[in-house]
UniProtKB/TrEMBL annotation:
The lineage of its organism: Bacteria, Bacillati, Actinomycetota, Actinomycetes, Micrococcales. This is Tetratricopeptide repeat protein. It comes from the Bacteria. It comes from Yimella lutea. InterPro entries: TPR-like_helical_dom_sf (IPR011990).
Length: 108
């Protein structure tokens, strides 16, 4: 448990330092090795780190997995929409961004 917390904190610090690719690796390790309890923050930071490090295929997969677990995860909708937009999949992106806006989340 402590080791998982330390890995989370290390990943969070890397993210804050804008070392997104390194942070993504830490969060991926944490999420694949953990029991899956209390991983919502790590999952969100993983999506963001993947997006910011331009690992768009992985960011899309992470956002879709989050939405599979929780279809009302507005932030996952935003990440998915922005990821699709960066891949020039504009129409598909618009669908998810509009859903996020319906939940009251700004997509700008």
């Amino acid at each position: 448990m402590i080791q998982e917390f330390d890995r989370y904190e290390y990943g969070r610090r890397l993210f804050e330092q804008r070392k997104y690719a390194q942070a993504a690796r830490e969060f991926e390790e944490l999420l694949t090795s953990g029991e899956g309890h209390g991983t919502g923050d790590a999952r969100e930071l993983l999506m963001r780190a993947l997006f910011h490090s331009a690992q768009l295929t992985k960011a899309e997969a992470a956002a879709r997995a989050a939405l599979e677990d929780n279809p009302t995860d507005a932030y996952a909708l935003v990440v998915l929409g922005r990821t699709l937009y960066r891949q020039a999949r504009y129409e598909e992106a618009e669908t998810y961004l509009k859903q996020a806006e319906a939940f009251g989340v700004s997509t700008v």
